[in-house]
């Protein structure tokens, strides 16, 4: 079957396609993974990604899809947004609507590819709202992957933010804190030591959440796989 020309993808056509692709089984699976499926069709990312490529990047379409309020339409909106169009203002506006970890993580994945997105980190992690705070630490994790030209000093500065948030027991926060610390430790041989040292510090903490983050970090950063990739003896 021939693909639909990009110009023919109206918002109504996209929503109809999502409705056709969705299943109750996938909706149930989303709920099991802690995703609010109340406004979802039940379409996995493995299907959304090629659909986004077929539709093509488009800031206007992304805006309309986000405004529809449907979960997968919002995931598509993120996938259709170029990093240069994911401005801090747009990211903050969309974050106000987010109540699911997958939307949060996909948005920060795009945002992290912007050269200046590090300027948002401290503001986001200082928020008390669960998914906004998660976004801050997810942004750190993604920048550790995507911000290839950023100096190690940027990531050293994040360690204190991680230490401060390590006692936040909320599920979607502590997992992002843990993710950020692990990604920093895997970014370079120079960052591995400081991240591992913080992991050991947290593993010895009197706080249960901090200990959990610390133990898992130490386990991963001490693994032969990570050490070999970073050429650590």
What is the strand and helix layout of this fold?
Layout: H1 11-21, H2 24-32, H3 45-55, H4 59-68, H5 71-79, H6 88-95, H7 101-111, H8 121-125, H9 130-146, H10 152-165, H11 171-187, H12 189-203, H13 208-221, H14 224-229
Helix pairs in contact: 3-5, 4-5, 5-7, 7-9, 9-11, 10-11, 10-12, 11-12, 11-13, 12-13
How would you describe the overall organization of this protein?
This protein is mostly helical. The chain is 67% helix and 0% strand. The chain has 14 helices and no strands. It has helices spanning 11-21, 24-32, 45-55, 59-68, 71-79, 88-95, 101-111, 121-125, 130-146, 152-165, 171-187, 189-203, 208-221, 224-229.
Structural class: mainly alpha
Portion of residues in helices?
Answer: 55-70%
Q: What's the tally of helices?
A: 14
Order of helices and strands: HHHHHHHHHHHHHH
> How much is the average pLDDT?
95
Shape annotation: globular
> What proportion of the residues form beta strands (DSSP E)?
under 5%
Uncertain runs are none
For the secondary structure, the number of strands is 0
In whole angstroms, the N-to-C terminal distance is 54 Å
Gyration radius (Cα, Å) is 19 Å
Give a short account of the largest sheet: none
